[in-house]
Design brief:
The protein has about 280 residues and is α+β, with helices and mostly antiparallel strands. It contains nine helices and eight strands. The strands form two sheets. Strands 2-3-1-4 form a four-stranded antiparallel β-sheet, sandwiched between helices. A four-stranded antiparallel β-sheet has the order 6-7-5-8.
C-alpha cells in the first residue's frame, strides 16, 4: 500500500533568530494557511543566529513535477506569490530580511538546516549589506501615443489644396515629432532620477521594463530598484518627486518601501538576474 510522502519544507526568507521575530511569526500564516516559524542552524553560536523562515507544504503540490504544472496555472501562482510576499513583508516590518525565490523547497527540515549551514558565510555577508536598508522602485512611463488626427490641415488663402497623401504624411510627421519629444523627456527624466538617487545609494538594479497588463495603456521605459538607508528614505522619495515636476510629459512613479527582493543577491548577480517585479 502506497503512502503519501511527508510535507516538504518551504523557505520564504532568511532572517536573524530573535524572540521578537519569533513572536511576530507566531500568529502568521503562510501558504495554505500553514503556520510559519524559524529554523536555525544548531551549529551557529551567534547571539542572533541566521534562520530560515519556513512552513510545511504538501508534497503533492510542491514536488518537482507538480511545480512544472503549477507554473502554468496563473491563479495558483498568484495565490502562492501573495502568501510568500505577505510573509516576507511581515518580517521586513520588524527586522532585516533576505527574501528567497518563490517555491524554494527542501525535502524536510533536516535538509533545509543543512543548506542553511552550508551557505552561512555568504548569507551573513548579504544580511550585513541589507541591514538598515529598504528597497524603493522608480518607474518612468510614457503616455499612450496620440491617435493621428483626421482633421483637414488648415491652409492660407491662395495656396493650393493639400492632397490626401500629403495631408497624411504631415499628420504622421507631427505625431512622430511629438513622440520623439516625449522620449527625450523620458531620457532626461531618467538622468535626473539617477542623479538624485546617487546622493542616497550606491546600489541599483535595472529591471526590464514592464509590459502588457502590468503597465496598462502607458509605456514603461524605466523600471529601477534602489537600496536606500531607512533613515534617508523620506528624503529620497521627496527628491525623486521634486525632480518629477520638471518632466510633465512623462509619469515618474516611486514605490516602496519593499523588502529587498532586488538585492537578495550580490549586485553583480542581481544585475544579471534583473527583470522581475517586487511582490505580487
Amino acid at each position: 500500500m502506497s503512502t503519501e510522502p511527508g510535507p516538504l519544507t518551504y523557505v520564504y526568507a532568511v532572517a536573524r533568530q530573535t524572540e521578537r521575530l519569533a513572536d511576530v511569526l507566531s500568529g502568521l500564516r503562510g501558504i495554505d494557511a500553514a503556520p510559519v516559524r524559524l529554523l536555525a542552524d544548531a551549529s551557529d553560536a551567534g547571539s542572533a543566529p541566521l534562520a530560515f523562515v519556513i512552513s510545511p507544504v504538501a508534497h503533492s503540490a510542491f514536488n518537482e513535477s507538480a511545480l512544472k504544472r503549477h507554473f502554468e496555472d496563473l491563479p495558483w501562482l498568484e495565490s502562492v506569490a501573495r502568501a510568500h510576499h505577505d510573509v516576507v513583508q511581515a518580517i521586513a516590518a520588524e527586522a532585516t530580511v533576505l527574501p528567497l525565490r518563490m517555491a524554494t523547497v527542501y525535502e524536510d527540515d533536516t535538509r533545509a538546516r543543512q543548506a542553511l549551514g552550508g551557505q552561512r558565510g555568504a548569507l551573513t555577508r548579504r544580511m550585513s549589506a541589507l541591514d538598515g536598508h529598504t528597497e524603493y522602485g522608480v518607474k518612468i512611463y510614457l503616455p499612450p501615443p496620440a491617435a493621428p488626427t483626421t482633421a483637414e490641415p488648415s491652409r492660407e488663402a491662395g495656396t493650393p489644396p493639400t492632397t490626401p497623401g500629403k495631408a497624411y504624411l504631415q499628420r504622421r510627421r507631427v505625431q512622430r515629432n511629438a513622440r520623439e519629444r516625449v522620449y527625450e523627456q523620458a531620457r532626461l527624466a531618467a538622468t535626473a532620477v539617477e542623479a538624485v538617487a546617487a546622493g542616497f545609494t550606491t546600489q541599483r538594479v535595472r529591471h526590464a521594463p514592464q509590459s502588457g497588463a502590468l503597465s496598462g495603456p502607458q509605456e514603461n521605459v524605466v523600471n529601477d530598484a534602489y537600496l536606500i538607508p531607512v533613515e534617508l528614505a523620506q528624503r529620497f522619495r521627496a527628491g525623486i518627486e521634486d525632480a518629477a515636476r520638471d518632466f510633465p510629459e512623462v509619469r515618474i512613479e516611486v514605490t516602496g518601501p519593499w523588502a529587498p527582493y532586488s538585492f537578495a543577491m550580490p549586485p553583480a548577480e542581481a544585475a544579471g538576474a534583473a527583470g522581475g517585479e517586487r511582490g505580487p
